């Protein structure tokens, strides 16, 4: 997942080992149930695309995490405290990590540099369990790992942090489905399939909502919660219309770099990296000839808004 092991006794290995059969069973159950009901949203092209994306992500992560883990280990050497590994300290860590995940996930939608990799996860125009595997091989470089450094600095051992991260990510697999409707009182506290369907939707009222990992209370606390009412329309605002994994991965980083290289003030050009994905430059008063329209039909300089 996000971290590799610091030791041979890393408990997160057991979490992932136990979760894998559950993943496959849920995908099989969901595909079979939808096929029986004649409303399957699994397609061969997109399923293969998801598999390719997941495989490429795992391969790159093996190398990138050597650096990531080195940074976390170095920070832990300068920790403020040494937090013991107990069930109650894990509960504290789990809540803290979930709050930092909310911050990281929200930033991944509001900072274009981070969105350039996270957009891959949102580009599928369907919602099913295989969507959870849809990750970019650029994620280790554009991803969330710096947001968890305060945990190791406070004194939580890196393998303890790793366990909390992986428990969170395992939980999130199970919210990627349309088969589970609303879950009653659990909807008030937990991120549920209903809440996460909103997050993946491109309906105007659903964009940039429900960033939660495990606890939906963060969205309710910080004003980003939206309840599922209207049927979600999944995907990004300007759909890719392709299942090519290379286009899926690189379309937004290429667009971001192209926008940053366009002539103009350096500050404006760099803003394409850290401004929200929908930000566009003011038109120069000297630009009398805009040239031919871009192929996607958008105004020049406009990037697809985050979903």
UniProtKB/TrEMBL annotation:
<feature type="transmembrane region" description="Helical">
    <location>
        <begin position="52"/>
        <end position="75"/>
    </location>
</feature>
<protein>
    <submittedName>
        <fullName>Sterol desaturase family protein</fullName>
    </submittedName>
</protein>
<feature type="domain" description="Fatty acid hydroxylase">
    <location>
        <begin position="90"/>
        <end position="224"/>
    </location>
</feature>
<feature type="transmembrane region" description="Helical">
    <location>
        <begin position="12"/>
        <end position="32"/>
    </location>
</feature>
<keyword id="KW-1133">Transmembrane helix</keyword>
<dbReference type="InterPro" id="IPR051689">
    <property type="entry name" value="Sterol_desaturase/TMEM195"/>
</dbReference>
<feature type="region of interest" description="Disordered">
    <location>
        <begin position="278"/>
        <end position="307"/>
    </location>
</feature>
<dbReference type="InterPro" id="IPR006694">
    <property type="entry name" value="Fatty_acid_hydroxylase"/>
</dbReference>
<keyword id="KW-0812">Transmembrane</keyword>
<dbReference type="Pfam" id="PF04116">
    <property type="entry name" value="FA_hydroxylase"/>
</dbReference>
<keyword id="KW-0472">Membrane</keyword>
<feature type="transmembrane region" description="Helical">
    <location>
        <begin position="87"/>
        <end position="104"/>
    </location>
</feature>
<keyword id="KW-0443">Lipid metabolism</keyword>
<keyword id="KW-0560">Oxidoreductase</keyword>
<feature type="transmembrane region" description="Helical">
    <location>
        <begin position="147"/>
        <end position="171"/>
    </location>
</feature>
């Amino acid at each position: 997942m996000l971290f590799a092991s610091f030791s041979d006794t890393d408990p997160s290995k057991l979490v992932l080992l136990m979760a894998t059969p559950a993943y496959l069973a849920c995908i099989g159950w969901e595909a079979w149930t939808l096929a029986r009901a004649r409303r399957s949203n699994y397609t061969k092209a997109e399923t293969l695309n998801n598999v390719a994306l997941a495989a490429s992500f795992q391969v790159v992560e093996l190398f990138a995490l050597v650096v990531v883990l080195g940074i976390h280990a170095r920070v832990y050497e300068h920790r403020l405290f040494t937090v013991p590994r107990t069930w109650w300290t894990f509960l504290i860590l789990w809540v803290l990590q979930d709050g930092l995940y909310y911050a990281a996930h929200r930033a991944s939608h509001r900072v274009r540099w981070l969105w350039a990799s996270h957009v891959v996860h949102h580009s599928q125009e369907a919602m099913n369990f295989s969507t959870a595997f849809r990750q970019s091989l650029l994620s280790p470089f554009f991803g969330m790992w710096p947001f968890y450094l305060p945990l190791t600095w406070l004194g939580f051992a890196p393998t303890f942090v790793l366990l909390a991260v992986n428990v969170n990510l395992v939980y999130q697999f199970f919210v990627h489905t349309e088969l589970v409707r609303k879950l009653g009182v659990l909807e008030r506290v937990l991120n549920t399939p209903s809440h996460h369907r909103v997050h993946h939707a491109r309906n105007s009222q659903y964009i940039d909502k429900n960033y939660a990992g495990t606890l939906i209370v963060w969205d309710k606390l910080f004003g980003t919660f939206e309840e599922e009412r209207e049927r979600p329309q999944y995907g990004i605002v300007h759909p890719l219309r392709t299942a090519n994994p290379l286009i899926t991965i690189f379309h937004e980083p290429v667009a971001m770099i192209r926008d940053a290289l366009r002539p103009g003030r350096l500050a404006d050009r760099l803003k394409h990296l850290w401004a929200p994905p929908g930000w566009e430059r003011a038109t120069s008063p000297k630009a009398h000839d805009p040239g031919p329209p871009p192929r996607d039909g958008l105004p020049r300089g406009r990037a697809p808004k985050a979903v």
